[in-house]
Amino acid sequence: MRLGLFGGSFDPVHRGHLLLAECCMEQGGLDRVWFVPSAVQPHKPGGPVAGDADRVRMLRLALEGRPGMEVSTLEVERGEVSYSVDTLREIRRQLPDAELFFLMGADTLHDLPTWRGPAEVLALATPMVVCRPGEPEPDFGVLSGLVGGDRLAAIAASRVAMPATEVSSSDLRRRIAVGEPWREMTDAAVADDIEAHKLYGLGNREQ
Ligand SMILES: Nc1ncnc2c1ncn2[C@@H]1O[C@H](COP(=O)(O)OP(=O)(O)OP(=O)(O)O)[C@@H](O)[C@H]1O
Ligand SMILES: O=C(O)c1ccc[n+]([C@@H]2O[C@H](COP(=O)([O-])O)[C@@H](O)[C@H]2O)c1
Q1: Do 73 and 81 meet the contact criterion of CB atoms below 8 Å apart?
Q2: How many helices and strands in the chain, by DSSP H and E?
Q3: Span 93-151, pLDDT tens digits
Q4: What is the H or E stretch that residue 152 is in?
Q5: Each residue's pLDDT tens digit, 142-157
Q6: The whole model's pTM is what?
Q7: ipTM computed for the complex
Q8: Domains of the chain in sequence order
Q9: Would the CB of 82 count as within 6 Å of ligand 2?
Q10: Pocket (CB within 6 angstroms of ligand 1)
Q11: CA gap 38, 55 in Å, rounded
């Protein structure tokens, strides 16, 4: 099985995340994609804005009716700071025969050498890097001190192209808080859920 792991804060999940996973499934020939919300992303020590249960529920709603896409609660169940190397070790232990890919935008690739145990991360999973038009080309050379030339070429060959989607979780949260249009930036079921639970300061301005 070719399994794609897509880690992020998903605070909240948005159309860019969903499109990225779809493009990787199609172009990267993945059988499954697991979205792995982090408890606390190591480089975002303040932690997410929404709680674990809210982010997991929104992800499940977004992935309903998307065959092969699921949520893994491994990191939120482990709690504390979510190091990807720990998550990959655990998934490798559970699924020894799966071929693991780690889905990421080019921005995350450039950050990867600063992660905990980056060489082990690269031994456990192959980064599947998504390139967006209008963004700088991913610089696979940032991994050259961590993997050999053949492996580097294989990682570069796994790259996937996707159309630009000008959306980020932080902009979505900002729009909700200040009352700008935001629903189109995410899945309709997620937008309904944000409204039902009054997440991200929704409605605070009117009170
Ligand atoms: N619009 C987008 N298009 C494609 N990939 C994206 C987009 N937004 C985020 N990603 C990718 O999704 C992954 C998880 O990102 P994350 O959950 O932190 O979302 P984010 O929108 O970047 O959040 P924030 O704005 O809070 O930093 C990262 O690898 C990031 O590169
Ligand atoms: O393991 C680490 O040291 C590490 C440091 C920074 C980010 N990550 C992971 O990278 C993924 C993308 O994170 P983000 O929030 O930068 O989009 C997510 O799964 C994070 O847990 C992992």
Answers
A1: no
A2: 9, 6
A3: 999 999 999 999 888 999 999 999 999 999 999 999 999 888 888 999 999 999 999 99
A4: helix 149-157
A5: 999 999 999 999 999 9
A6: 0.96
A7: 0.96
A8: 2-167 (3.40.50.620)
A9: yes
A10: 8-11, 16-17, 20, 104-105, 107-108, 130, 165, 167-170
A11: 10
